[in-house]
Design a protein that fits this description.
The chain contains 5 helices and 10 strands; from the N terminus they run ββββαβαβααβαβββ. The chain has 231 residues and is α/β, with parallel strands linked by helices. The chain has an 8-stranded mixed β-barrel, surrounded by 4 helices. It has a two-stranded antiparallel ribbon with strand order 1-2. Helix 3 runs antiparallel to helix 4. The two termini are 20 Å apart.
Length: 231
């Protein structure tokens, strides 16, 4: 088993809202660079399995750290537009990874295309707090405000929204500001940037009462390297 596939020892059943306003249970959550079946060999895909489509991961050097996704080495949203041209349809719990602080994206065109392809919504991945923190450009506070405003815009455009944050304080603030608009939240701590880029990266569900009713997942940091000379 690779370090991209942590064992989900407990699946937390957390209430969440479907596109029609009804409440459903969200289960596993996986970041993928191709839209396709999520089930592993010997397992069965369920309707509440969630995928986050991040085609830009294909353009990053394989096995390099995910921190590469926060650097200005590719046009994240342009890669999404290109990949969507090859997508025919997706599952009803598939979200697109969007860089919300990109000043050049044609937002109306992107929202229309995502709805046409059947996406449930969008995720702010990579999050502004990590992009600006790594690049040391601008104000993280300003980036987060722009990001929240863009998420609200996507919600008003008829798409679900999942927020990714790099600190508990940030996530608590966003949870309060977006209230019951969120479909879910993802905790992406800076330590997780050392994980390697892969075609499939699984998140683990976490029971976090502070952020209910949104489902809550986390990306684990990379496993610590064994000490030199350890057996």
């Amino acid at each position: 088993m690779s370090d991209f596939e942590p064992v989900l020892e407990e699946r937390v059943a957390v209430p969440n809202r479907a596109r029609d306003g009804s409440w459903v249970k969200m289960s596993t959550c996986t970041i993928v660079d191709h839209v396709g079946p999520l089930a592993k060999a010997g397992s069965e895909k369920k309707d509440d399995d969630v995928c986050i489509f991040a085609p830009s991961l294909r353009a990053l050097p394989p096995a390099n750290p995910i921190v590469m996704a926060t650097l200005p080495i590719l046009d994240w949203n342009a890669e999404l537009f290109r990949a969507l041209s090859d997508v025919t349809s997706v599952g009803n719990r598939c979200y697109a990874a969007v860089l919300m602080i990109d000043p050049f994206t044609l937002w109306e065109d992107l929202a229309d295309l995502l709805k046409e392809k059947g996406f449930a919504g969008v995720v702010n991945f990579p999050p502004a707090s990590l992009v600006e923190g790594v690049q040391f450009v601008g104000s993280a506070g300003a980036g987060n405000t722009l990001e929240i405003d863009r998420l609200k815009w996507f919600h008003d455009a008829g798409l679900g929204i999942v927020h990714t944050g790099s600190s508990r304080k940030e996530m608590a603030d966003v949870s309060s500001r977006l209230a019951d608009l969120l479909d879910g939240m993802i905790y992406f701590p800076p330590e997780a940037l050392s994980r390697r880029v892969a075609a499939r990266i699984e998140l683990e569900p976490i029971a976090e009462a502070s952020f209910f009713p949104a489902s809550f997942w986390s990306l684990k940091p990379a496993p610590a390297s064994p000490a030199v000379g350890a057996v």
